[in-house]
Amino acid sequence: MTIIRPRSRAADRFRALAITAGATVALALGAAATIHANPPRRPAAATVPDAYLSLATRASRGGVFTAGVVARTVAPGAAETWLVRVADRDGRPVSGAALRATPWMPDAGARMQPRRVDAIAAGAGVYRIGGLHFTRPGWWTVPVRITAGRHADTVVFNLIVPSTAVCPGEEGAG
Predict the structure, then answer these.
(1) Which terminal residue of the chain, N or C, has fewer Cβ atoms less than 10 Å from its own Cβ?
(2) What percent of the chain lies above the pLDDT cut of 70?
(3) What b/e sequence results for 78-112 when a residue is b if at least 16 CB atoms lie within 10 Å of its CB, and e otherwise?
(4) What is the mean pLDDT of residues 57-83?
(5) Residue 50: is its pLDDT beyond 60?
């Protein structure tokens, strides 16, 4: 003979709690797997506002210099030219410095060709960096190494290159 005992309310609540907890864990693991497999992407260049451009004056990584892009020549399909003003940490213009830009595209691992572009002094702490060939649309970082006397440091600029401003030429390779 089999005796069937009626379930208690406590057992029913425990069973419901266990089912809810299991479902919550399964949903959380599924969401985590989805996010890991499909990480969030940066918005396309066309949807990024101009405020995302980061060419304003800023301190170098080590605080030795400040630098900023004071003028930018951009023509669709042509190489860009930047005028960069360099000052010491007290704001005095730095003359006689050597500047080298090494643009790269972090999302694609692409480097600009040529890989490095040296600047030409334009006077009063301003330097002309020409021949910036951005061959792909998207986010680019442009580290600029500044060497003046026995001091050296790097300033990094960021910009979004829209597809209409891509410069034809060799595509960079990582």
Answers:
(1) N
(2) 61
(3) ebbbbbbbbeeeeeeebeebebbbbbbbeeeebbb
(4) 89
(5) no
